[in-house]
Amino acid sequence: MNLLIMGLPGAGKGTQADFIVEKYGIPHISTGDIFRAAIKQQTPLGVKAQGYIDQGELVPDDVTCGIVEERLQQPDTKAGYLLDGFPRTIVQAEQLEKMTQKLNKPLDAVLNVDVDPETLVERLSGRFICKNCGATYHKLYKKTRVEGTCDVCGGHAFYQRSDDKPETVKNRLEVNLKMNTPLIDFYSQRNLLHTVNGNQPIADVTQEINQVLSDLH
Description:
transferase; cytoplasm; ATP-binding; Rossmann fold; alpha/beta; kinase; nucleotide-binding
């Protein structure tokens, strides 16, 4: 089963990826992880990528695609793979199509975990931190037991990281939305796209994904 999982930040992609990997026994290929591995192992492409990163530049498509292709040739992808974080552009999607055809490992499905942006802003901007001991909480998912008091140290002062502020979160989502929309169209035209309702409880999202994948068998 050769899969790609997509979704905006906070959509719960990571949780669903864990389920897919466990159920189908395929590796979770996250571009961040394979970049770090290639750089650590000092592979020729890893060294190239490091050069661009050190200069604060974006790693070009040919290097990124090369690192992904190397990863897809490893023995653990024999039964399939789950791509995450790649492709990010149409050029990369076209390259992926070519390389997977060449390797005889074309995509079977693209799962898009779709959550409405307002819900995502709530999910992502709900985090707050105790100023005294650094314990983290969430206004929806992990509240303090006593309102305004840290469970760990009893402190009463909290702050929010600039990354977690609603405006920053909205901007981040807009950037990702712009990036994802052409890819959704690209995979929709190829009849590979399966949009899953990510507004449901986690177990229901898992069940919906399970249904999509069972139907592919």
